[in-house]
From TrEMBL:
GO MF terms held by the record: DNA binding
Pfam family for this entry, one: HTH_3
Tagged with keyword DNA-binding: yes
Keyword check for DNA-binding: yes
Protein name in UniProt: Helix-turn-helix domain-containing protein
InterPro entries recorded: Cro/C1-type_HTH (IPR001387), Lambda_DNA-bd_dom_sf (IPR010982)
Region Disordered, residue ranges: 85-104
Family annotation (PROSITE patterns): HTH_CROC1 (PS50943)
The HTH cro/C1-type domain, residue ranges: 10-64
Keywords per UniProt: DNA-binding
SUPFAM superfamilies assigned to the protein according to its UniProt record, in alphabetical order: lambda repressor-like DNA-binding domains
Length: 158
């Protein structure tokens, strides 16, 4: 993390939200002096406080830490996925429809998403985690349902 960049971004974001140091300190449950020290480049927040700070300032931890110049609070992989999904729907032709995907390509997509989760999960809010868990449960139920249908079909043909 670039400590100077962190301090500058913290001050700029706090000012853009029109928060005083006291207001921001109350929002993330730290003392005003803690905010003063962060802005003066004397100390730095731990991971938990970084996440609270990013949430309060409507940005990402990566932006605060100087890992990206994009202040958007949405993780990059989520935003890119949304854009890719929209583009895909617009350009989809009958021979590339989702029904023609192979199991191998779907499994690869799941693996790619898992890799992205490995990198981004520490920055998820509780709500994001709940959404991801619910989607995983739905995927599992879909696979279980399909598996039981196939089992029944194989019993009928035997």
């Amino acid at each position: 993390m670039s400590e100077i960049l962190f301090s500058k971004r913290l001050v700029a974001l706090r000012d853009s939200k029109k928060y005083s140091q006291v207001e921001l300190s109350r929002i993330i449950s730290v003392s005003r002096q803690t905010i003063v020290r962060w802005e003066a480049n004397d100390t730095y927040p731990d991971v938990v406080l970084l996440m609270k700070l990013a949430s309060a300032l409507n940005t990402s931890v990566a932006y605060l830490m100087g890992e990206t110049d994009d202040p958007s609070p949405i993780p990059t992989f989520v935003r890119e996925k949304t854009v890719l999904d929209t583009t895909k729907k617009e350009t989809e032709s009958p021979d590339t429809s989702p029904q023609k995907r192979t199991p191998a390509s779907i499994i690869k997509q799941i693996a790619d998403i898992n890799d992205a989760l490995d990198q981004e999960a520490p920055f998820f809010e509780e709500e994001d985690i709940d959404i991801a868990k619910n989607l995983l449960k739905r995927c599992e139920k879909t696979l279980e349902k399909e598996s039981s249908v196939r089992t029944e079909e194989s019993k009928e043909t035997a």
